[in-house]
């Protein structure tokens, strides 16, 4: 099966860009088979597939003419496993990403490891249709993974989460990261209770960044940053999230680490409401962690990182002690590192405080990226020391 690309589309593929977009195809004709992508003269460019996703309509798999089959996937998985060599050596971290889509040579599929279980996330129906070969190849390379769940991340009537093969995982499934325990649930919707891309930031908190400090964790979800801070010696953590489920989830994360949740603060509240509440009560903190979703809507207001991050920073500055730290994080792919930094620093300038960028984080190495696909390198975390 062949599909012809436009001049522009061919150029992108030749330069290594892995994502095919609608406008790159000469004819808008999809296929559920592996395809040979050709240039305007019919010349071979790459092997790939077409599958409609949230972004794009297909992925390049290989720049040489070859069969896409079980042997191809086995090779991809072997290379991916080798890349994670040091995670396998490290007994203090048992949950990490095994296969990161285009960063590991095949866009449309992500596989995470939780102790001895896998979690497959499928981003388009075409690749999902090849599930049998892919899963068989995975089991060949990762025989120690005793069971796996799958998440459907494309429009479909399939359940969004279900057992894919093997043994069910216990609920919760306790995993380790930097020696800290996290309670995860592999079959509760699309999320598991922990975002594995923040392991290095949590690692910094565990290793002393929050030692002896009071920590405010905004958009706290299951409180992963709070637990890391508390385990790293924070005197008290305060977790704030709009979702009611965040209270039992956060309590559980403290409990599985032997911390009494009653010694910590957990609020179900809108972040912007909490800022007002804390100001009224004159509450101040040494460290504020800001890790909002890219977009969020509540009754009163729509929040987007691209538009409103500066407000979050300004409000956080108000809640800091005379000296303090802000950990500013975003996963918004539409905001460049430069824009993000600019937004943060403009807010500091507006607040007239002295600031110093002390430490930055991007994706950890298990979230392999493709240098030709910068939008895959989405995580930006900037730490600032502030003096008022
Ligand atoms: N920082 C978390 C992940 C955040 S996920 C971690 O490291 O694990 C985004 C969270 O923001 C969700 O739990 C969601 O409930 C919460 N959220 C969205 N809008 C919010 C708002 N306006 N105020 C407080 N929390 C909000």
TrEMBL record:
Residues 169-357 form the S-adenosylmethionine-dependent methyltransferase domain. Residues 5-62 form the RlmI-like PUA domain. This is SAM-dependent methyltransferase. CDD domains: AdoMet_MTases, RlmI_M_like. InterPro entries: PUA-like_sf, PUA_sf, RlmI-like_PUA, SAM-dep_methyl-trfase, SAM-dependent_MTases_sf. GO terms for biological process: methylation. It comes from the Bacteria. Keywords: Methyltransferase, S-adenosyl-L-methionine, Transferase.
